[in-house]
Amino acid sequence: MIIKEYRVINNCTRDEYQVAQLFAVAEASKEETGGGEGVEVIKNEPYENEKGKGQYTYKIYHLSSKVPAIIRALAPSGALELYEEAWNAYPHCTTVLTNGYMKENFKLITETMHVDNSRGEIQNALNISPDLLEKREVVIIDVANDPIDPKDYKKDQDPTLYHSEKTGRGPLKNNWIKSVEPVMTCYKLVTVEFKWFGVQNKVETFIQNTMQSLFTKFHRQLFCWTDGWFGMTIDDVRAWEDKTKQDLDESRAKPLAEETEA
Q: Per the record, GO CC terms (predicted)?
C-alpha cells in the first residue's frame, strides 16, 4: 500500500473553490467523453448519515481506449470500467474508486480537506493517525510550474499566461505560492491498494504518479476557467451539473465517426 498526501495550492478562497471544483469537474468530463466512452453519472443527490450530510455521487468511467492495447486484449468484460463513489461534505470529501473485475483487490481512496488561507504548510490537516503519518509521503503541487505531459498542454489552460478579467487574478508567476491572494489549499490523502502478486508495487506507484498528473492538470484548468465559475452559486453549479449530465449521455452515445465529422 502506497500513501501520499498531495497539497494543491489555489488562487481562490475556500468558498469559491467549492463552486469552482464542481464546475471544473463537469467541464473536464466533457473533454473525456464520446464514442461510447467517458463519464457516466448514475447518481448525484444529497445524503445524510451518522457521519454528517452532503452530496453523494456515483459515476462509471468507461476507459477501454485509455489503456494499452495489450491490456484491452487480455482484460475480461468490465475490467476497463472504474466505479467512483464520492461523499462531498465540504470542506471534507471522500472519494472511493473500485473495479468490478478486481473487486476487493483494488481500491483507490482520496480523502480531502479544503483549508482557507493556507499555503500547504499544515502538517496534519486531515488528522490522520501516527502510523499513517509515518507511511505518508507529502507532495506539493505547483499548478503553474510543475511539469505536465506535453500532450496535455493547452495554451488557454496555462496558469502562467492566464489572466482573469472578472477577478484580476493571474498570471501565476515566479514564487506565486508565497505571495498570491486569496489562497487556499486542498490536502488530498491518496491511498492505493492493488493486490496482484508480482506487480503490486509497480502498479501502485504508477497509479500514484497518474493521480499527481491528474491533480496538476485539473487544477490548472480550474484556475484558467475562473471567469467561467466566478460568481456562480451552489444552485447555479448544480443546474450546470444537470445540464452536463445530459450532454455527457448524448456525447457518450455518439459513434466516434460522428464526432469526427461534427
A: cell periphery; cytoplasm
